[in-house]
Amino acid sequence: MRRLMLLRHAQDRARRTFRPRSGPAIGPAWPGRRGRNRRLDRPASAFSRSGAGFARSARGAKPGKSPGRRLKDLAPEPQVELAPELYGADPSQLLQTIREASATDPKRLLLVGHNPGMHELALALAGSGDAAGRKALADNLPTSGLAVFDFAADHWTDVAFRRGRLALFVTPRLLKQTSGD
Q1: Which residues pair with 113 in a beta bridge?
Q2: Which of 46, 110, 151, 159 fits 5 for a cystine, CB–CB 3.0-4.6 Å?
Q3: CB contact at 8 A, 63 and 53
Q4: Residue 7: exposed, middle, or buried by beta-carbon count in 10 A (0-12, 13-18, 19+)?
């Protein structure tokens, strides 16, 4: 089985003025995060430069600090690859990039990108799964929205449109509604 996570990145400076602390927090929905929030409203250039630090913090370590022996044993250091050519890519180009992950063969893959490509890709991949999540996803993949798909596939090359099972769809608005804030 393969798990694909699609995370919509916030808009960059070229499209919108950056306002610190203005973006939604999505951290509590990630397994193992224990309620820590991670704001995702930084411009793309800052996000790209700190991609490894962000990935490291997602596994509970502070950027620039050793994650510690116990954490290292539980979760390997994530591999981060920056692919500027995916900015503005269409779903077919994004799917090809996902299929190319077979070279390193991770069981889980996180793709961070912008709309409209990310939303269109999510819609194209969804073949089954959480009905309420699929209905919400049909409306929009908002900034900091996360769509998690499972594929009954042994290799990333087998991933195809309409073959994904939507396991989770979460947005900042849904998190706010469930938290009662």
Answers
A1: 8
A2: 110
A3: yes
A4: middle
- Structural domain spans, the chain: 2-179
CB atoms closer than 10 angstroms to residue 118: 23
Q: Which pLDDT score, from 0 to 100, does residue 177 have? A: 84
Crossing angle, helix 91-99 and helix 117-125, to 10 degrees?
70
Given a cut of 70, the residues of the chain with pLDDT beneath it are 11-76, 180-181
Q: In sequence order, what are the residues at sequence separation of 6 or more whose Cβ sits closer than 8 angstroms to the Cβ of residue 167? A: 3, 129, 130, 148, 149, 150
Q: Tell me the fold of 2-179.
A: Rossmann fold (3.40.50)
| Strand segments (E) across the chain | 2-8, 108-113, 126-129, 146-151, 164-170
